[in-house]
Amino acid sequence: MGENETLSWTKQCSLKWSDFKAEHNPASYEDSHSVIKYGFTWTVDSEKMGSDILFLIKNIQISVEFCPLLSSVRPSEISDQLLKYEQGRFDLAELVKRENLSSLQMKFEGKKFPTRGKNEEQRKQLAKEDSGKMIAQEIEHLQNLLEEKLREYDEITDYGNNLEKVTEFNLKFEQLKS
Asked: What's the domain of life for this entry (predicted)?
């Protein structure tokens, strides 16, 4: 696994303790720590309108990524229950993505944005850069929403110790995989 490699959420992807590759900080109050973030790809197209070139953002795809090299577990606390809790955090990120994807896409789909630059080639290059920044800003909002939802999940499930609440969440997460 390369330095920048992540595990992308799929219906078939289940976390394993071997995916937690960071050394656990013995001073940490957490028995496990997972880093989950959103990645994205998109297509940018340009259109000439008179002397102006406008760009359009299409095909925004968002992926949920687990970062093994930043995720850790206290070796003495490895258990199926704790792993199920961490899987729930990963699944929650997918759920948040799905709940917000269409509104994020609607902010860009079918809209035309002005370009900057001195010539056509520069405008196309800057359109790619500007569109990336625009989407990254929306992804940052989504990441902040995820952090809020993860805090709620941690509290409601008592960090995976409340099996009844973990089971309730897992029933929701099962729908993602069907």
From this structure: Archaea
